[in-house]
Design a protein that fits this description.
Blueprint (H helix, E strand, L loop, with lengths): L7 E5 L9 E5 L5 E7 L2 E6 L13 E3 L2 E3 L6 E3 L5 E2 L8 E7 L2 E5 L1
Antiparallel strand pairs: 1-10, 2-3, 3-4, 4-9, 5-6, 6-7, 7-8, 9-10
The structure holds FE2/S2 (inorganic) cluster.
Length: 106
């Protein structure tokens, strides 16, 4: 059994998340994160746009590029790197899976 550092939080299983699905999850400290499953795997990022806090669960997904629905800032959800007109990066979080359960490092 692997012992996880205390910066890792258990999220549970997300077998119901299919490619292209997004799901908001509240962490024990109240922080809201967005889980996104794409063809390349599971990703986690800040749930709100860094521009004007629009919920990114309502954003558009094309491959691994997430687009905010309000002013169309875009990010690579692997790295949080801003793309195109986006002026700020998006916070992304490391995930790992153990015995079917997902853990997030925040
Ligand atoms: S609120 Fe998201 S780009 Fe403006």
């Amino acid at each position: 059994m692997t012992v996880l550092a205390d910066t890792w939080h258990s999220l549970g299983t997300f077998d119901d998340l299919e490619i292209g699905d997004k799901k908001e999850v509240t962490l024990p400290d109240g922080k809201l994160v967005l889980l996104i499953r794409t063809q390349s795997g599971m990703h986690a990022c800040c749930a709100d746009c860094p521009h004007q806090d629009t919920p990114l669960a309502e954003g558009m997904l094309e491959g691994d590029v997430l687009t905010c629905p309000l002013h169309f800032w875009q990010w690579d959800i692997n790295t949080g790197e801003a793309i195109g007109i986006a002026e700020e990066p998006l916070a992304v979080f490391e995930l790992r899976q153990e015995n079917g359960a997902w853990f997030i490092r925040v």
